[in-house]
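Hi W., the tryptophan complex you wanted:
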Amino acid sequence: MTDTKKSIHGQWSSRFAFILAATGSAVGLGNIWKFPYITGENGGGAFVLVYLLCVLLIGIPIMMAETMLGRRSRQNPINTMVTLSEEAGADKNWHYLGWMGVIAGFLILSYYSVIAGWASAYVLKAFTGSFFGADATTIKGLFDNFMASPIQLTFWHSLFMLATMLVVVRGVNTGLEKAVRFLMPSLFVLLILMVAYAMTFDDYYDKGIKFLFTPDFSKLTANGVLTAMGHAFFTLSLGMGAIMIYGSYLPKDVSIAKTAILIAGTDTAVALLAGIAIFPIVFAAGLEPASGPGLIFQILPIAFGNMTGGWLFGILFFVMLVFAALSSSISLIEPAVAWLIENKDMSREQACIRSGLVTWLLGLGTIFSFNIWSGFKIFDRTIFQLMDYLTANLMLPIGGFCIAVFAGWIMKQQHTEQELDMSDALSYQVWRFLICYISPASVFVVFLHVVGVL
Ligand code: TRP
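Structure:
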């Protein structure tokens, strides 16, 4: 391996460009849509605590490992696993890990795009003043009507998939950089504004904070722990090769450790802010925290409909949510696209059209699970719930487990040391301890706990 090795798809212009892209991938619907509703479903504080621990002990070390694998090989995740296992003299079967990642990316994007479609539709609803002065019942009615229409949902899903593929076709390192640079900080500011609004609900604000930050372990089930862990992977975009492929475009002289900590910190801050903004309003409006995937769409419009400047803030908020989703969705499909280009000799256009169509089609399953197929259940779950469980709770943690084992046990220590290039030996030792023992063991223990062995 030489220092001059580059990906055929190009390279980020700077460390900052990578940070933007990786943060763009991490911060998305996972933080603002998913984190609040799964926190609500799993009883609050204890769930949040487990999630935070998972980010710290599993997420950050694995994010470093994934970035490192990508940068070392400069290829798509499948080829990365082939090249690096050869380099380490290990079994060739490691490339199945790359495969699982590509498939997980498709499955996640299929439902991710549907939800991003909801957010896009809400830009229009905000614009036309649908939220104006509305109470909780009206807003819920609005959401329920929207869910009942497969045609509307398909329209917005199609629009979002089209936008995603238009960005990916231009190549991720030119496509979105400018938009993300401006929109991410704005989203942050707007979230803080929402928190300020939530504070005006005095007692309910306290109740919301208490719900989020006072752990009550009696409310946490084994599956709740799995969901919290799975979400740590999901929200940081780990376990399927997205960060790996972004790492493959990363210049050589960038510190992987510092970058990973910065990205994980920002991502966590956004999720917590979203939670702090949302739960006080949930309680003030007399809604259930466990309202499911519609939670933010039933809560935030109440705020926008009743606060000063709410019309404008509502539009801005949903626009930014769509952009946050867009900068995430491109990272879900990029591994597949890069693989089609590198291994199947396709042009970027062809690769985008094919993978986009497959994802779009899969997404229809999620759409119908909110209306015409809502009674159709496999393992007691609708198609959407099944997709979510399969990817976030199973495939990502399994992928992450394998990445940890590969980086910790299969790769030569000399290579990981060289690639991470950490300034002091102690930090490297800490990472090594986490990646060899703590991260894989935690994933394993949580799985055992869920199947009831522990
Ligand atoms: N992290 C993104 C979010 O929170 C979603 C996402 C983008 C993702 N790329 C990923 C999740 C790769 C898992 C794997 O919204």
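The chain has a mean pLDDT of 92.

W.
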